[in-house]
Structure formats: structure tokens, C-alpha cells
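Bit of a strange request maybe. I'm writing a small parser for C-alpha cell strings and I need a real example to test against, not something I typed by hand. Could someone generate the C-alpha cells for this chain?
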Amino acid sequence: MSRQNLSRRKIEQAIRAVDDTHQPSIEILSVTSENQLEHFKERLLEALVRIMEDMVPDREYRELGIAK
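Reply from user aminoacidic:
Good idea to test on real output. This should exercise your parser:
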């Protein structure tokens, strides 16, 4: 499996995980907010589009914004 396909699958899995938190539990809300979850999903979708369009910037220019 190519690195691009692996990255795409992992991002799709992360998006599904965020989608599965329609009503986040108290455990989830103890470490994040619903707004942050939406932000994560938006950024993951942006990354997925870049991968699918083969428009991933060089490593030094990447900034996902959710690493912390």
C-alpha cells in the first residue's frame, strides 16, 4: 500500500471517529470541546482533499494546526 493511500485511510478513520461523537461523552469533553472536534474535522477534511488531489506541500510548509 502506498504512503498516500495509508495516509488517506488514516485520515478517513479519524474523520469517522469525530463523526461518531455526535453527542460527546463526559470523558471526551474532559479533554476537548465540541468546537475543537469540529475544527479537527475541518482540518482533517482539508488534509484529505490535499492528499487526494496530490497537492501535499513539502514537509517544511505543512501546518495542520491540530498537533498539540
